[in-house]
Amino acid sequence: MKKYFLLTPGPTPVPPEVASAEAQPILHHRTTEFGKIFIDVIDGMKYVFQTKNDVLMVTGSGTAAMEASVVNLLSAGDEVIVASCGNFGDRWENICNAYGVKVHKVAVEWGQAINPVDIEEILKKNKNIKAVFTTHTETSTGIVNDIETIGKIVKDTEAVLVVDTVSGLVNQKFLTDDWYVDVAVTGSQKGLMSPPGLSFVTVSPKAWQLVEKSTLPKFYFDFKRMRKSIDNKETPFTPAVSLVVAIHKAIEMIKEKTLEKIWYDTEKLAKAVRAAVKSMGLKIFCDENHISNIVTPISMPEGVDGQKVVKTLREEFGISIAGGQSKLKGKIVRIAHMGYIDKTDLVVGISFLELVLRRFGVNIEVGSGVKTFQEVLEAK
Amino acid sequence: MKKYFLLTPGPTPVPPEVASAEAQPILHHRTTEFGKIFIDVIDGMKYVFQTKNDVLMVTGSGTAAMEASVVNLLSAGDEVIVASCGNFGDRWENICNAYGVKVHKVAVEWGQAINPVDIEEILKKNKNIKAVFTTHTETSTGIVNDIETIGKIVKDTEAVLVVDTVSGLVNQKFLTDDWYVDVAVTGSQKGLMSPPGLSFVTVSPKAWQLVEKSTLPKFYFDFKRMRKSIDNKETPFTPAVSLVVAIHKAIEMIKEKTLEKIWYDTEKLAKAVRAAVKSMGLKIFCDENHISNIVTPISMPEGVDGQKVVKTLREEFGISIAGGQSKLKGKIVRIAHMGYIDKTDLVVGISFLELVLRRFGVNIEVGSGVKTFQEVLEAK
Fold it and tell me: In which domain, by residue range, is B300 found?
């Protein structure tokens, strides 16, 4: 009888329309009917990514699509830049290391944004760089990176720009083509408000040239095989049929609302959450000049264990927010505002966060955050 | 308003209980609640595989789990045997080739079963063989291979036995431990009567020893990372949460019915379908001494294009059966009896197959196949 609220930066709640679509009888994946839905999804994702490039689909987590990008673009011994400002940026490095790709790392303190000039300097010094890997919105710290500027730097070099926008796409403005992103990667379970299990990749003509030269081994992740199948309105292997039908519905809803309206609404929600958090006497963890709109990272006051806050909210009140990852474990908590999460969910989240923090000895007037949240939202 | 019947050897229809479970609100994957469901699924799969070995889960198609087995067990240049009797057996070879693994191929004409002695001979001559890859039920031709005998041959060598039972598991008897199978691979969308998108792998202690020595690159498919996560009741990356919740329900249903009863019922259905097909004057495509119970491969009479039969059944009557794959395209059609497919679905399938074949000029008395099907099923 418990009611659940999912306020995590992935997976995010699934609208009832999408859940119903997911539960429809399974279609065979080599039928005209499924082929039509699949191609609709691919075309819909071109709108969501704002691209005219090829879009490919992988049955697998966002990490699968990240790895697919590495193995399709590169060869062992290739040199790349990984520009990371957190846990997900570091994942690019870990994948490259697993494949014997040589990484030039651009890193900043967690909570700060990547400085595009740092990438530019390495590219100037090293003409062998084949690819620059980075992260659009780094959910582990709350940062959004300046992909537009990075794109301008990378476009005139031999390197391709590969961006993880698993969490950012849909809710945080992302323009694949206008920003010269060669490969963009996303997952179904964040802004796309669908269940986890599908991921998508865009591939520019410049990236396809690298694919032709790549010798890293691949089979399930082979981009060329995927592209060839799309010509037949198919996937190379049995796809997660029910998830494709689900995301088909979700994309329809996104197109109906339009990306511009979603970006605008998400920004309003984000501003209201940040104001609420501050009015509760709490601090925003990351650099607010580069804070994303999809998640608010909140520093825990001295002596309060963020993991315990998350656990209490989840187990006693059915509210899932996220804790800190890796070196931030216990030090921050994170409230997401992406996908199907809306103001009603956030009022619940903020209200019970107040309550739980007070229990942990923080001097908070219950209701103060909710009041600020509503007032900021209501202001013109 | 059209009614759909899925009689293909994967994906198979999903019971309404499983579809409802799939559509439940998304749980966060790092919660106690999801952890419990996940571990239940892992334990349930040990029953389904009939194993005490580790079971690992991959968010991806069956092919993803096949590739995961190759990259976790082997190193480039390793020598292996691929014993293939059809399209899916050949897939092992294609994956090995992609990773620079040297394949000794054991092949038979499509429609015949693998002769275990052929494997034994290579193993005797070549002590460097690291693994033997083969297929339990080869759905492209309808064959079930004698894994028990192959297991006895491989167990006393240095090699591990890796078996694709993506289509066979649940409906065709398969005893991982008793048959000395070191690595067994399956998918969610066949006997497990769940949507496609999840796959599972068993790993024996002998196989883990190979994993320790393997140097093929991997990240998303890394078995050691998966095993470590299971200790924390987690997956390394966001899993297909809704598919896990769905298969959790399906496994509960399988356990309730028991594997023994499912094997028995499937065999009865298979016999009735084969008899029906023959009574219609049609021929079974494969060697009936080694025919599986999960799919009936039917040779098309001279001059009848199987692809057109499949297309008419699908587009006009909403009934999906499978055509021939690769070199069998057009020459056979295949009716599955696995997972949630039952006698009511098969009566529909057989009846409209009669009708469509008559349209294509085959001399068939409509009703003859259905009559035989019912009579064979009814016979004690």
Answer: 5-10+258-378
